[in-house]
Design a protein that fits this description.
The chain is α+β, with helices and mostly antiparallel strands and 128 residues long. Helices cover 12% and strands 16% of the residues. The longest helix has 5 residues, at 14-18. The chain is elongated.
Length: 128
């Protein structure tokens, strides 16, 4: 969850304009976040010119080696865009390679047999 410092927020709405998930709004001249829409992408954090937005980070405690979320740090969570950004997956309908299950024969032979499907034509490792 992002944290918005009400003392630093001026209500300029630059964070609202930059949010790709429409998770921010203005209430009483201050930015507020809708937790159900926020994906922690960090775009609003970068857009805020006053440093009023903080991103959560994970730090190690020395007592029990447990991870603790620190909601009031200003470090950017660099991995959040990798897991929350839908752009890399938009437009792809199947995994790389097409899911055909058969490869193209590209063995020895100086170009002979090029373009034939694996298992057909000249077999690799045999001499005629």
């Amino acid at each position: 969850m992002i944290y918005i410092d009400k003392d630093l927020c001026t209500g300029c709405a630059k964070c609202i304009d930059s949010c790709p998930f429409a998770a921010l709004s203005i209430l009483n001249k201050k930015a507020v976040v809708d937790e159900s829409l926020c994906r922690l992408c960090g775009v609003c954090f970068e857009a805020c010119p006053f440093g009023a937005i903080s991103m959560p980070t994970v730090r190690q405690t020395s007592d029990a080696n447990a991870s603790v979320a620190d909601n009031r740090t200003t470090e950017f969570n660099a991995f959040a865009p990798l897991f929350n950004d839908p752009a890399p997956f938009s437009g792809s309908s199947r995994p790389f390679g097409g899911g055909q299950g058969r490869g193209i024969h590209s063995g020895r032979g100086g170009g002979r047999g090029c373009g034939r499907r694996a298992g057909k034509g000249r077999r690799m490792g045999r001499r005629r």
